[in-house]
Amino acid sequence: MLVSYKPPFKKFVKKQTRSFQLVIEDEVEAVIQNPLTGEGKKGDLTGFRVHKFSYREQKFLLSYVIQTGEIRFYTVGPHENFYRELKKYLKEVD
């Protein structure tokens, strides 16, 4: 399966500590192994799935879209303002 990463995802990961980068990498691998693990979204985020995980007692979310033979990771970050940032990025791209 093909995997791609959008700029907000890459930017967030690049700024993190190496230990957190490895945790994110593990979570990405888990999603690739089972793409339906994330919760499907409705409304203006239809088609997106969000995988939730914890790191140092804080909740983080990872958004992605599954398309034929491809998974695109859009954003990763803390729950606070997560959906607002995702929608903001989608408006900028359109």
What are the defining features of this structure?
single chain; 94 residues; alpha+beta; YaeB-like fold; 3 helices; 5 strands; globular
Task: Describe the protein.
The protein has one domain (2-93): 2-Layer Sandwich (YaeB-like fold). The mean pLDDT is 95. A hairpin with a 2-residue loop joins strand 4 (58-67) and strand 5 (70-78). It has 94 residues and is an alpha+beta fold. The chain has a five-stranded mixed sheet with strand order 1-5-4-3-2. It has helices spanning 7-14, 18-33, 82-93; strands at 2-5, 39-40, 48-55, 58-67, 70-78. The protein has three helices and five strands; from the N terminus they run βααββββα. It is 38% helix and 35% strand.
From the 3D structure, determine the CATH topology.
Answer: YaeB-like fold
Major beta sheet, strand line-up: 1-5-4-3-2
- Whole-number mean pLDDT: 95
Looking at the structure, what is the overall shape?
Answer: globular
Q: What share of residues are in beta strands?
A: 35-45%
Helix and strand element order: EHHEEEEH
Helix content: 25-40%
CATH architecture: 2-Layer Sandwich
Low-pLDDT stretches: none
N-C termini distance = 26 Å
In total, how many beta strands? 5
Looking at how many chains there are and whether they match, the oligomeric state comes to single chain
| Helix count from the secondary structure assignment | 3
Largest sheet: 5 strands, mixed
**What is the total domain count?**
1
CATH superfamily: RelE-like
- Judged by helices, strands and strand pairing, the structural class is alpha+beta
